[in-house]
Amino acid sequence: MKDGQGRSGLWVAATNRHTAPVKISPQGSIDDWPFFTPQGDVVFLSTEGRENFVYWMKADGSGRRKIASEAVIDIQGMSPDGRWVAAGEKGQEEEEPSTATKALAVDGQSEVTICTGFCTLTWDAAGKSLYVFAAQFGHMNYVLPVEPETGLPKVPPGGIQRAEDFAAIKGLATTPDRVVSALRPGTYAFTRQNTRRNLYRVPLG
């Protein structure tokens, strides 16, 4: 929620309302887009000056640390096992779009480029598939199988750079729908856009 100066901060509230909400963002920080890990910790976006960075902290606000030193545009989601957070890397110039969409290790030890440019990454709840959507690769969702050892799909070094790179991924599937959340492979929620028009008469006099 925002304070009196319009700065966004993170609070933790019990769903049973037995205790009062507690602010866990320190005074003066600007935090947003929180995700809980399976361990109950929080991964979130924090604004420093004009740039955003991915942070981690415990649910009581302690242990706050930066996951990656590179600025990002946003956080897209987190893997069900809590090992990875998806984020769009910020371009070098202010008007430049994201240079890559990456999976950042929550422990801060590594990062993997999933695709160049901007794409959206959505893990299913079972952690078995990663849905990748990017307009530059065609208007469809690519469903990539996740390797249990890494928690990520196997992609080319440097990430997916063109639509043809998907063909080399073993076990690839596709869906024409833009997936926003998924339970398991083949079971997902999606959005579709359409335009509806009608004729109206407007008096001019």
What does this structure look like?
By secondary structure, this protein is mostly beta strands. 0% of the residues lie in helices and 40% in strands. The strands form five sheets. Strands 3-4-5-6 form a four-stranded antiparallel beta sheet, with no helix packed on it. A four-stranded antiparallel beta sheet has the order 7-8-9-10, with no helix packed on it. The radius of gyration is 20 Å and the shape is globular.
Choose one word for the global shape.
Answer: globular
| Percentage of β-strand residues | 35-45%
Number of strands: 16
Taking the alpha carbons of the first and last residues, their distance comes to 49 Å
Q: Please give the share of residues in helix.
A: under 10%
Order of helices and strands: EEEEEEEEEEEEEEEE
Low-confidence spans? none
Main sheet attributes: strand count, strand direction, barrel closure: 4 strands, antiparallel
Would you tell me the structural class of the helices and strands? mainly beta
Radius of gyration, Cα only, in angstroms? 20 Å
Mean pLDDT: 89
Strand order of the largest sheet: 3-4-5-6
Number of helices: 0
In short:
By secondary structure, this protein is mainly β.
Spell out the blueprint of helices and strands.
Blueprint: E1 11-12, E2 22-23, E3 30-36, E4 42-48, E5 51-57, E6 65-66, E7 72-78, E8 84-89, E9 100-105, E10 111-116, E11 120-123, E12 129-133, E13 141-145, E14 173-175, E15 178-184, E16 187-191
Antiparallel strand pairs: 1-2, 3-4, 4-5, 5-6, 7-8, 8-9, 9-10, 11-12, 12-13, 13-14, 15-16
Features:
205 residues, mainly beta, four-stranded antiparallel beta sheet, 0% helix
